[in-house]
Specification:
Blueprint (H helix, E strand, L loop, with lengths): L1 H13 L5 H5 L9 H14 L23 E5 L10 E8 L3 H9 L4 H4 L12 E5 L3 H12 L5 E8 L6 H7 L11 H7 L11 H12 L4 E6 L4 E7 L9 H12 L11 E6 L3 H9 L4 E6 L23 E7 L1
Parallel strand pairs: 7-8, 8-9
Antiparallel strand pairs: 1-9, 2-3, 2-4, 5-6, 5-7
Length: 324
């Protein structure tokens, strides 16, 4: 009888039930010796978490990718130089301070070809000109001959002007250069849209992308008035009705004598424009053209580099937009 009672007690314990007093009270006047040991085993088993999953429980849901929260604007007009290149120049040391002012008044070739270079460094050494120029060599020798302690030597100087602060900081060990912070260039280098447009275009672009629905679209936005002037979409049934042309017709209908189509406006595109549309946008005098997708076969910018060939009459900025 004892074996039967113990067996029933263990069976109930295996499913998380514990009624030892009820099971054994009719057979034993006091708890048997094996009961404390069995109770400890059950308690230890209950303390271990189960690693098996129930077959009825669904697997954890896959977390969706976070939606893009900002736009990155990549300028196609500028090849940002972050590391300076250098060229050899001749400089003269040991010139008296009283004579340096006289040298600086003399005509110099630096102003024409190298306006970013300063004539004198912190050690009062005077920069003469490129080392591979015979005229410069003769000029440097003449300067050195006029002063007892003067010495001509070759120094590496930055070949181009600094347009970014990070580039300018790397030129300091070579030779002093002139530098002025260009906020537009710094913003474009960081992937931001310069000017007043940068703080407004992101929300407009996101709303535009939601309305596309697999279409090719175009928006003309006036940053000064903070207003969308026109919005158009390509018509697959009409080969020449590209999104730009559909939008241009709307803009032209609202033009007056005080405005030249979309002068000063930004154009937002879902795809890189073709050559025809790119020329039309240039004629509209827009300030910037921004597009989301490349157009490898017919695109005017990434493959054909049309924006690099504009004449000086008008030239708009070109930006490739990416979601982040």
């Amino acid at each position: 009888m004892t074996n039967v009672v113990v067996g029933r007690w263990l069976m109930l314990c295996s499913v998380g039930k514990s009624y030892p007093t009820v099971l054994i009270s009719s057979q034993f006047s006091s708890p048997p010796a094996f009961l404390p040991a069995i109770s400890t085993m059950v308690a230890d088993a209950d303390a271990v978490p189960s690693t098996s999953s129930s077959p009825c429980q669904p697997p954890p849901a896959k977390q969706p990718r976070p939606a893009p929260t900002r736009l990155r604007f990549t300028s196609l007009d500028h090849d940002f130089e972050t590391t300076p290149t250098t060229i050899p120049f001749l400089a003269v040391s040991g010139v008296p301070n009283s004579a340096i002012a006289t040298l600086l008044k003399a005509p110099s070739s630096l102003g024409e070809a190298y306006p970013h270079l300063k004539r004198v460094n912190g050690d009062k050494h005077v920069l003469i000109g490129p080392a591979d120029d015979p005229v410069i060599e003769a000029e440097a020798a003449k300067v050195a001959a006029n002063y007892d302690n003067a010495t001509v030597y070759t120094v590496q100087v930055p070949a181009t002007a600094s347009t970014l602060r990070c580039h300018y900081e790397k030129t300091i060990p070579f030779w002093p250069v002139k530098f002025k912070v260009n906020k537009s260039m710094e913003a474009m280098f960081k992937g931001e849209m310069p000017g007043v447009s940068g703080t407004q275009l992101e929300s407009i672009y996101f709303d535009f992308l939601e309305r596309l629905q697999n279409r090719r679209g175009c928006i003309v936005y006036d940053p000064k008035r903070r207003k969308v002037l026109a919005e158009g979409y390509a018509d697959a049934g009409i080969p020449l009705k590209h999104a730009v042309f559909a939008t241009t017709a709307t803009v032209a209908s609202h033009a007056n004598d005080d405005t030249y189509y979309a002068n000063g406006c930004d154009v937002l595109l879902s795809q890189e424009p073709c050559m025809m549309c790119a020329f039309a946008l240039n004629h509209m005098r827009v300030s910037n053209v921004l597009y989301l997708e490349s157009n490898p076969k017919r695109g005017a910018f990434e493959g054909r580099k049309l924006h690099k060939l504009w004449t000086k009459c008008h030239r708009y900025g070109v930006f490739r937009v990416s979601l982040e």
